[in-house]
């Protein structure tokens, strides 16, 4: 059995298509975990209610096995927490008006609870436990349903004046429809919707990036070129020691890593490009670290 002192914690990662939940020791050892569908079309209140029900069930199972119940929790969310809801979170209707912290604290019966941006939590996980260990600065790219970056300087994840540091998905796209931003072109959902609209095919974005069919290959090449250019711009701005890439699109890791390596090769000091240690659950791992910091504040960064 894992070391249960000083207590157990709960992590929740709200994604555009899935919600990951886990209980863990304050030292980071996962006790139990579960994944459910987000079902974003149901709206924000339904999504958070479903997550709370699943979390309480997970806490019950953990307590039955260990004799202890989690005493703190952290949630990872797309977007930025604000007074009235979560800003910059377009994938779940109503998320921008949802007081997520209050809903979770009340629903879970936990006073020690924090909420943070998913990519910033994933960046923390990669710095403390993964591919960015010791990197100063370090750059993390999340390529999945959405696209965003995290930056670590001096061991601290950069937040920015409004908490929006690294939100590159809102940068203008170099192709696509007028007014399109980067996420509208290279985000996983955007790729899948474009393929469905133009061919009727239902394909995962990773499948598109790996396809050798001519039309899909052309689409993939355009996506990868824009993604690489975005990372190259960040490399020029930040001069990172290491770039780590995670997220759902890393099911097609080879073409993504190759495209980014090509793009940054022309910068003055090209950094190594690495797959993240936590390719698909970095935000959950970061949430568990944040929750552990509420139990043992000396461990928090």
Please give a handful of descriptors for the protein shown.
2 domains; alpha/beta; five-stranded mixed beta sheet; Nucleotidyltransferase, domain 5; 9 helices; globular; ROK; single chain; ROK family protein; 301 residues; ATPase_NBD
Description:
- The structure is a single chain.
- With 301 residues, the protein is α/β, with parallel strands linked by helices.
- The protein has two domains: 8-118 and 281-299, 2-Layer Sandwich (Nucleotidyltransferase, domain 5), CATH 3.30.420; 131-275, ATPase, nucleotide binding domain (Nucleotidyltransferase, domain 5, 2-Layer Sandwich).
- Helices cover 39% and strands 20% of the residues.
- The protein contains nine helices and twelve strands.
- It has helices at residues 44-66, 100-108, 118-129, 182-186, 188-199, 205-210, 214-238, 253-264, 282-295; strands at residues 8-14, 18-25, 30-37, 72-77, 80-81, 86-87, 113-117, 138-143, 147-153, 156-157, 242-246, 273-275.
- The strands form three sheets. It has a five-stranded mixed sheet with strand order 3-2-1-4-7, with helices on both faces. A five-stranded mixed sheet has the order 10-9-8-11-12, with helices on both faces. The protein has a two-stranded antiparallel sheet with strand order 5-6.
- Strand 8 and strand 9 (147-153) form a beta hairpin.
- Helix 1 (44-66) packs parallel to helix 2, helix 3 (118-129) crosses helix 9 and helix 7 (214-238) packs across helix 8.
- The longest helix has 25 residues, at 214-238.
- The protein is globular.
- The model has no long low-confidence stretch (mean pLDDT 93).
């Amino acid at each position: 059995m894992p070391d249960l002192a000083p207590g157990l914690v709960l992590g929740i990662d709200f994604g555009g298509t899935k919600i990951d939940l886990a209980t863990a020791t304050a030292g980071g050892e996962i006790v139990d975990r579960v994944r459910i569908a987000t079902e974003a079309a149901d709206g924000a209140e339904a999504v958070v209610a479903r997550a709370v029900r699943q979390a309480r069930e997970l806490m019950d199972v953990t307590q039955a096995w260990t004799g202890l119940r989690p005493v703190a929790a952290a949630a990872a969310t797309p977007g930025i927490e604000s007074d009235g809801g979560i800003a910059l979170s377009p994938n779940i209707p109503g998320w921008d008006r949802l007081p997520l912290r209050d809903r979770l604290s009340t629903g879970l019966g936990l006073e020690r609870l924090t909420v943070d941006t998913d990519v910033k939590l994933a960046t923390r996980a990669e710095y403390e436990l993964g591919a960015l260990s010791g990197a100063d600065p370090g750059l993390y790219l999340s390529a999945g349903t959405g696209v965003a970056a995290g930056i670590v300087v001096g061991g601290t994840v950069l937040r920015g004046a409004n908490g929006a540091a690294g939100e590159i998905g809102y940068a203008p796209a170099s192709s696509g429809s007028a007014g399109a931003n980067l996420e509208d072109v290279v985000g996983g959902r955007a790729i899948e919707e474009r393929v469905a609209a133009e061919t009727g095919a239902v394909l995962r974005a990773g499948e598109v990036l790996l396809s050798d069919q001519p039309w899909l290959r052309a689409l993939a090449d355009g996506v990868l070129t824009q993604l690489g250019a975005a990372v190259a711009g960040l490399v020029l701005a930040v001069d990172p020691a290491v770039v780590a890439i995670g997220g759902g699109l890393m099911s097609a890791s080879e073409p993504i890593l190759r495209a980014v390596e090509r793009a940054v090769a022309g910068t003055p000091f090209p950094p190594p490009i690495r797959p993240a240690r936590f390719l698909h659950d970095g935000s959950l791992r970061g949430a568990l670290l944040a929750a552990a910091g509420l139990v043992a504040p000396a461990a928090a960064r």
